[in-house]
Amino acid sequence: MFVLSKKVNVFLNFFQTLPFTQGNVYSKSIYDLSAGIKLGLMNNKMQLNA
């Protein structure tokens, strides 16, 4: 988490699962990278997540 000011936070998330076999079903590796921002408005009484 990177803090730009007291009211703005920027998030960067990474998720990964390794390949696996369950019974006779093989699943490949799955990964995801997502970013987000959190804003505190009206003296932090209202928060906006995107």
Report the major sheet: 4 strands, antiparallel
What characteristic shape results from the CA principal axes? rod-shaped
Structural classification: mainly beta
Q: How many domains, in number, for the residues?
A: 1
Radius of gyration from the alpha-carbon trace, in angstroms: 18 Å
Short description:
The protein is an all-beta fold and 50 residues long. The chain has no helices and six strands.
Describe this structure in words.
The structure is a single chain. It contains no helices and 6 strands. A 4-stranded antiparallel sheet has the order 1-2-5-6, with no helix packed on it. A two-stranded antiparallel ribbon has the order 3-4. With 50 residues, it is mainly beta. The chain has one domain. The chain is rod-shaped, with a radius of gyration of 18 Å.
Topology diagram in text:
Elements: E1 2-3, E2 8-17, E3 20-22, E4 25-27, E5 30-41, E6 46-49
Features:
two-stranded antiparallel sheet, mainly beta, 50 residues, four-stranded antiparallel β-sheet
